[in-house]
Each structure stands twice: as C-alpha cells, then as structure tokens.
C-alpha cells in the first residue's frame, strides 16, 4: 500500500511538472506582410516560434498546401527560414515568385498561422512624376513606382 501511494505521488508530480511546462507555439519572429526582392539577390522570409515542445515551422502556399523545396529555386531551411534563391528569367514561376505564403508553427499543444506574406520578385524601381487633379487643386508629386518581374506582363504598383 505504501509503495502504491509513493508511486502515485511520484507519477502525479511528474505529470504536473510536465503539464506546467507544456506551452503552445507563439511567434518570436513573424514574417513581414510583404517581401520585394530582385531576381539577382533572391529573398528570404524568417519565421520562428517558441513553445514546449519546440514548435516545428512549416510554410503554406496560397491554396493551403505545404510548401516544398524546388531545387535551386525555393528551399525551407531547417531553422524555418524560407529561401527564394536568385533566379534567371527562364526559371521564373508565378506561383513561387509572385504569390502569398503563410508560416505555420505547431507542436503537440497547438498550431498557429502567421499573417499572409505577399511576395514579389521585382525588377525596376523608379520615380515617376504624377499629376493629380483633386477638385480644383492641381498636385504634382513624385511617386515611387515598383515594377515587378512578370515576363508575361508588366505589373507596376504605387
Ligand atoms: C536561419 O538560418 C539562415 C542561414 O543560416 C539565417 O539567415 C536565418 O536568419 C536563420 N533564421 C532564423 C529564424 O533564425
Ligand atoms: C536576373 O534577370 C536579369 C534580366 O533578365 C538577368 O540579366 C540576370 O542574369 C538575372 N540574375 C540571375 C542571378 O540570374
């Protein structure tokens, strides 16, 4: 009987200790809402989370499927960073270089999903003088315009 109580006591303590240390994931580094990068530099997105057990990091693509490695083009590092390697024009892929990613951190306690990260592989950046008529006022303002790589069309955004 004594042995039984002793065992139960130890077991209870063990479970309590374990429980109090279990923690769902929380982002330490959440990726930014936008990433613009040039084909010559490539780009990367950091994502890391704390928790116990240590959460694992995954990336989701636009359709919610898990992002895999594409040799020489896209790679998920072991520390959770998503790398988009420098690429030649011929290797451009719309669903890799101009798309939306989300980071997922999960452990046995729970799962959290980051905000959406809009990724644009960009090429040009220039100043444009823009004239706008707002009511009677005529305003001329320099505006920074980004044009993104899209070999089938030019996409520019203000
Ligand atoms: C992961 O490793 C890469 C390269 O070693 C580094 O650039 C990146 O910042 C690391 N990511 C995190 C989340 O620490
Ligand atoms: C990026 O694209 C430009 C223009 O197409 C090309 O000249 C350059 O070599 C590319 N960079 C890389 C790393 O392939």
UniProtKB/TrEMBL annotation:
Residues 1-17 form the signal peptide. The keyword Signal applies. InterPro entries: Ig-like_dom, Ig-like_dom_sf, Ig-like_fold. Keywords: Signal. The keyword DNA repair does not apply. SUPFAM superfamilies: Immunoglobulin (SSF48726). Residues 25-114 form the Ig-like domain. This is Ig-like domain-containing protein. It comes from Popillia japonica (Japanese beetle).
